[in-house]
Amino acid sequence: MHSLMNEYLFTYYMARLIDEMKIMRIKDATLKMVVLNGYGGASISKIAKEAGVAEGYLYRYYKSKSDLVNDLLYINVNSLADRIEELLDGKHTVWNIIENVIETIFKIAKNDPNRIKFLFVLMNDYNFNIQEQQRERIFDLCRRLKEIGVSGNDFRKDITEEEIYLIGVNYPIQFINLRLKNYFKCSEFGDNEIKQVLQICINSLKN
């Protein structure tokens, strides 16, 4: 009896492990296909083929390509949003928060450039729409940053949530993308570049 139970548990956990590995391959393949082909060109068939799984298997976990890409975006955006929320709750200065956000974006780019490329592609692809829940969270975080910045006389009084997002998040990602593409024959994005981007952000946001 114990032998049968152990065999069942072993089979169950092995199946779960295999599923987790396949899902990880699907996510990695989605990142790669979106970066290479854009949202519109990253078909379910291409993603499944790259991940080495059947399309039917992929549809067991995701209803559509939109669900799959939004899930991946949610994971990437939420890790950054969680960090911003942690800093906001920790009563840090607004400039310390902005600096931390920029450093986090640069760190992601250093450790896994495809994650930044993925975010860049989706930010600039009209075929893709971010889910309302994610948009609302981003807006709420920018609103909280605005309240701290304006009340502390750090931000301009007429600053908007849109400007905070464009300058504090979008600009660093755009900057890194140009460096990754070696657009102006320069591919460095280390400590000096972090300081450079931070100063531009401060100059654009400050009172």
In short:
The protein is mainly α. It is built from nine helices and no strands. It is globular and about 55 Å long.
Report on the architecture of this protein:
There is one protein chain. By secondary structure, the protein is mainly α. It has two domains: about 1-60, Homeodomain-like (Arc Repressor Mutant, subunit A); about 65-205, Tetracycline Repressor, domain 2, CATH 1.10.357. It has helices at about 1-40, 45-50, 55-60, 65-90, 95-110, 115-125, 130-150, 160-180, 190-205. α5 (about 95-110) runs parallel beside α8.
User: Which secondary-structure class do the elements indicate?
Assistant: mainly alpha
The coarse overall form would be globular
Superfamily (CATH H level) name of the largest domain: Tetracycline Repressor, domain 2
Q: Please give the largest β-sheet.
A: none
> Strand share of the residues?
under 5%
CATH topology of the largest domain: Tetracycline Repressor, domain 2
Counting DSSP E segments of at least 2 residues, the number of strands comes to 0
Mean pLDDT: 88
Our count of helices gives: 9
**What is the H/E string?**
HHHHHHHHH
Q: Radius of gyration over alpha carbons? A: 20 Å
For the record, the CATH architecture of the largest domain stands as Orthogonal Bundle
Question: Under the CATH scheme, which class of the largest domain?
Answer: Mainly Alpha
